[in-house]
Amino acid sequence: xxxxxxxxxxxxxxxxxxxFTQSAAKLAQCPLDEGLETAFAGRSNAGKSSAINxxxxxxxxxxxxxxxxxxxxxxxxxxxxxxxxxDLPGYGYAKVAISKKLEWQKHxxxxxxxxxxxxxxxxxxxxxxxxxxYDTIMLDWVKQYDLRCHILLTKADKLKRGAAKQALMxxxxxxxxxxxxxxxxxxxxxxxxxxxxRQVLFDWLH
Length: 206
Prior knowledge:
Blueprint: H1 8-16, E1 19-24, E2 36-42, H2 48-56, E3 74-78, E4 83-87, H3 98-114, E5 118-126, H4 133-144, E6 149-154, H5 161-174, E7 181-185, H6 194-205
């Protein structure tokens, strides 16, 4: 006998309980590696923080900025029962030194490789510019470390419906042979795809 699926309102309340706990510059500074957590990764201008805020229903939980690249630490948000959402540093766009970018990349890969409580990765891409080189690197790491991945094609409201669906099909085709990887359209502004994304995350964390 399978467990009943919680009502949408209960899942909404679950994510609304998220609260910031701490930031870490590297793996050794992260919280104890216990419980379950789901991480968000993406280019600095893909709308990652906005997606987290929309999913939790909190406008200021994850820091958003008009200047891409402001998320330079691994940020942890507690839900309950040692379940967490994790905002990883934005990559590929920030106007910082190459040495700093390489340092971020090293810590990011260490986190994906060694964090045993990590249940899956939400990869955030701007629907108008999906599958950029850094996105491909992330997908390679997902495959290498045998992680589940759910791709959010954000800012879907910026395209007409037909163009958005075409972008979705293009990404689905590109990751067709990528194990444990799914794709959906998402709009933090309009709320499109929010319930579907919450359901994926809820299942991963339970």
